Amino acid sequence: MLQVKNLVKNYGSVMVLKGINFSIGAGTVFGFLGPNGAGKSTTMNVLTGLIDFQDGQVLIDGLDLRKNKDALRQRIGYLPENPVYYGYMNAPEYLRMIGDLSCYPQKEISKRIDELLELVQLTDVTRRRIGKYSRGMKQRLGLAVALFNHPQYLFLDEPTSALDPQGRMDMLNLVEQLKNLEITVFLSTHILADVERVCDRVSILHQGEIRLTEDMNELRQKFIQPIFDLEVTGQLDAILTKFSGLDWVQDVKVEDSQLSVYVSDPEMAKYKLPEVIADFNLGLVSYKIRQITLEDIFVRMVKI
Amino acid sequence: MRTFKAYFKKEIIESWRQYRYLVLAVGFIFFAIADPLMLKILPTILKNQIPAEMMQFMQFDPVQAVANYMKDIYQLGNLFVILSLMGIISDEIGQEKLVFPYSKGSKSEGIVLAKSIHYSLTLLFLILVGFILNTYYVNLLFEGVIVGYADTLRSGLLFAIYYIFTISLLLLFSSFTRKGLVAGMIVLLFNYIEPVLYNIKGLADWLPYNLVRQANMLGDLNMSIAWKSILTTLLYAIILQALTIWRMKRVEVI
Amino acid sequence: MFADMSVMEIIQLLLPVLVIQLILMITALFVLVKAEKVRFLPKWVWAVIIVLGEILGPIIFLTVGREKDV
């Protein structure tokens, strides 16, 4: 269990985290969403004990992070946004060093290195210096480093942001595999599709404040408010005037010939909307009920 | 202890693959051989250009030749050591190389001590080899009283202790900046100021530079004066390294 | 001692120095050629510095000009 209580972090007079609160149960994959500059990396650095904070409390398994840094570091693995290595080493050399630094049992280090290189698919490039690795390979090696000492908590800061589509897929597959290891994963990102794919619970951070914390399932339920996406041909003015007069239509967004009709009662709208369209001289190219996506929620949350 | 071991190994790999051993070896060993040779050849080159009565000033004995080597490795050696070690900690902080190690719970004592001991041993070895080679060559090339190996090795040891101080100074300043050049410049400046401070009465005995002066005495060295210098300099080194460890416990590595 | 030394003998004495310098120069050129990127100056300028810079040329390249992290 990871609990964050009223966490405050300033850089000089700039308040980066304005008293944030959330908690994560064991074994959860927790998505930490927010636009760039929201304070995601700062939160990660605080939670992993790399930087100090001004106010509030961080509890991991009930232990205060400030007072038990050394003990808690044994339970934490961190993959920073930009993993930096000693570029002149190769992967086994670097991992061996990490093994020593985390006081891993001496005799089992070699076995653990093989195991991890297998997991992150770097067994073919063990002789190459890390400085010559691609971005995706560095990111995967970073995961191996973070996982080295069997952490119960894994912090991944934007693990997919800088990767090409193939690298991103590989990374997400790895995160999904971690679910089976019962590791609590704290995943910060601004890529919503990644969160939808792997996370159980999500927080949205904006301007140093938590705007929302919900289970993904509940979130989908709570915010379901279907939108009807229409593509039509013809003059739109008349139908738009009509929509603005209907009380069950909340909003209409127009983009060229695409209409997004936000309705209050989707059940009723299912019957009434076709009637309305039929009243006007329009060609209907497509008609679709959109399920709300995390993106819609996200945009709404960071607008407030 | 495991941090110490990990970082000691890391420094060996780094120094080897980044050609740091090569640079340092050239700094101390190349001049051990080149220096007496240049001194020897100088009169031949200048034979037709300077009057004959000046030539007698161009004749050196072994003691003068060793002194010339010591002058060179004080000036150039400092430059080589500072150039190759100025980023010793600042590069690690500035390029965020300590994020993974710190997140794994590495101990700053281990990191700082591994670095200081590794480079102290490296320089001790290179300086002693340099002095042995130099002694061999000056005795071979120059006429006069032979210089004893025991004397030059003792001077080499004093030099090595002087360089342990330089390393400690680099460690401390390097831990306070993200740009190695800044640390390098400060230590270089200190090295230039020190001989000036040496002229102030009462201060001379307390300066690490005194070790360099003592080393120059070779056979005439008074050990009781040298001991005082050795102990004060080692004390400075310990204080500087303790401050570096203190700093590294608080530094934000990201 | 010096007066009776032939040119050949002087060259023999100089040999170790020349060998060290040559090793250093070749190492530096090798590093330069293999490097994908170098810092501050174009590659050919570094090559000139290494070849003509006597002992300090290769040293300056290896400490300053080389890309640190590979």
Rounded to the nearest angstrom, the radius of gyration of chain C is 16 Å
Overall mean confidence score, pLDDT of chain A: 90
Percentage of β-strand residues of chain A: 25-35%
Instruction: Please report the total strand number of chain C as a whole number.
Output: 0
The major beta sheet of chain C can be summarized as: none
**Poorly predicted spans of chain A:** none
| Oligomer kind | heterotrimer
Low-pLDDT segments, ≥5 res of chain C:
none
Portion in beta strands of chain C: under 5%
How many helices of chain C? The count is 3
Residues in helices of chain A, as a percent range: 25-40%
Figure out the total of helices of chain A.
Answer: 11
The number of distinct β-strands of chain A equals 14
Biggest interface, chains and residues, is: A-B, 32 and 24 residues
Order of helices and strands of chain C: HHH
Estimated structural class of chain A: alpha/beta
Mean pLDDT of chain C: 84
Task: Explain what this protein looks like in three dimensions.
The complex is a heterotrimer of chains A (304), B (254) and C (70). Chain A has a six-stranded mixed β-sheet, sandwiched between helices. Chain A has a four-stranded antiparallel β-sheet with strand order 2-1-4-5, with helices on one face. Chain A has 304 residues and is α/β, with parallel strands linked by helices. Helix content of chain A is 37%, strand content 30%. In chain A, helix 6 links the parallel strand 7 and strand 8 (184-189). In chain A, helix 3 crosses helix 4 (109-119) and helix 4 (109-119) packs across helix 5. Chain B is an all-alpha fold and 254 residues long. Helices cover 76% and strands 0% of the residues of chain B. Chain B has helices spanning 2-17, 20-46, 62-85, 90-94, 99-103, 108-141, 149-175, 180-197, 209-216, 223-250. In chain B, helix 6 packs antiparallel against helix 7. Chain C is mainly alpha-helical and 70 residues long. Chain C has a domain at 19-65. Chains A and B meet through strand 6, helix 3 and helix 5 of A and helix 1 and helix 5 of B.
